[in-house]
Design a protein that fits this description.
The longest helix is centred in the C-terminal third of the chain and has 19 residues, at 291-309. α5 crosses α7. The chain folds into two domains: 2-101 and 291-309, NAD(P)-binding Rossmann-like Domain (Rossmann fold, 3-Layer(aba) Sandwich); 108-282, Rossmann fold (3-Layer(aba) Sandwich), CATH 3.40.50.720. It has a seven-stranded parallel β-sheet, with helices on both faces. Strands 2-1-3-4-5 form a five-stranded parallel β-sheet. The chain is α/β, with parallel strands linked by helices. The chain has twelve helices and twelve strands.
């Protein structure tokens, strides 16, 4: 059986996943992202099983049309907006997922969120660059203690971020469409209306799933409602924020800065306006990229393959 592992950017899949246990199978690991559908179809020709890393490679209806041999698609994570599950089912393809990490307390994305917040507020990137160029103390940082952390989406990750904000002695406020004051209080936050969240936050951090309701949720009007001294952090999904509006807001000084780990198109295109926007810290979608996370995801991917081959697929994703 031919198995293809996609988008192993860091060349660690074989080291961190037990793919050698799939004895008798042909396991091919691809390191470079393949965006072109014709090239992708050629690379996956004859593969019965494909392992996809998160949402790096989309699997739309036209993708399944070009992969007649595909029978199992494993995605790391238990949701993947880049996979058309209805099309997979129509083509007889089972889709299985994995947990992001083996620990329910895993906070790799929450940790990276705070890395971005601190980098923006203390100008870490700018000061590193200045020091290497021979300059000393070129910026003035902003205290977190006493400030207001606004959390847009208070699920598992948002709650982890909120609790760290409390440790920094920040006032924590939160809003999402389905959030209640009682649920916010359980996480140590205060529920506020959306307009107050925007107007009051010194740091606004996004922790929502991408959906029709959240796409474009933060646009020009929302950015204009924020403090000019505020920063925006997005480690969730790029399309939740209007990238052009954000680039304009940063250029015009509508907000003070942004820390981003996710984008509309990934890898980030060379002509993205965000590359030239001032006061930004830009990361290449590293929220889930940790050794522990990879070990867990790749191990469970192999478990998915073995269970499917035994006739009892596990962690199956359905429409």
């Amino acid at each position: 059986m031919k198995i293809v592992v996609l988008d192993d950017y860091q060349r660690v899949a074989r080291d961190l996943g037990p793919f050698d246990s799939l004895t008798g199978d042909e396991v091919e690991v691809l390191h470079e992202h393949i965006a072109d559908l014709d090239e992708l179809a050629a690379a996956l020709r004859g593969a019965q099983v494909v392992v996809a890393m998160r949402e790096r490679t989309p699997f739309r209806a036209e993708t399944f049309d070009r992969l007649p041999d595909l029978r199992l698609l494993v995605t790391t994570g238990m949701t993947n907006a880049a996979i058309n599950l209805a099309a997979a089912a129509a083509h007889g393809v089972t889709v299985s997922g994995t947990a992001t990490s083996g620990s329910a307390k895993s906070s790799n994305t929450a940790e990276l969120t705070w890395a971005l917040i601190l980098a923006c507020r203390r100008h870490v990137v700018a000061e590193d660059r200045a020091l290497r160029e021979g300059r000393w103390q070129t910026t003035v940082g902003t205290d977190l203690a006493g400030g207001t952390l606004g959390v847009l989406g208070l699920g598992r990750l948002g709650t982890q971020v909120a609790r760290i904000g409390q440790a920094f002695d920040m006032r924590v406020i939160a809003w999402s469409r389905n959030l209640t004051p009682e649920r916010a209080a359980e996480a140590g936050a205060t529920w506020v209306p959306k307009d107050e969240l925007l107007a009051s936050s010194d740091v606004l951090t996004i922790h929502l799933r991408l959906s029709d309701r959240t796409t474009g949720l933060i646009g020009a009007a929302e950015l204009a409602a924020m403090k000019p001294t505020a920063i925006l952090v997005n480690t969730s999904r790029g399309p939740i924020v209007d990238e052009n509006a954000l680039a304009a807001a940063l250029t015009n000084g509508t907000i003070a800065g942004a820390g981003l780990d996710v984008y509309d198109t990934e890898p980030l295109p060379a002509d993205s306006p965000l590359r030239d926007a001032p006061n930004t810290v830009l990361l290449p979608h590293l929220g889930y990229v940790t050794e522990g996370g990879y070990r867990s995801m790749y191990t469970q991917a192999v478990e998915d393959i073995q269970a499917w081959r035994a006739g009892s697929p596990i962690r199956v994703l359905t429409v």
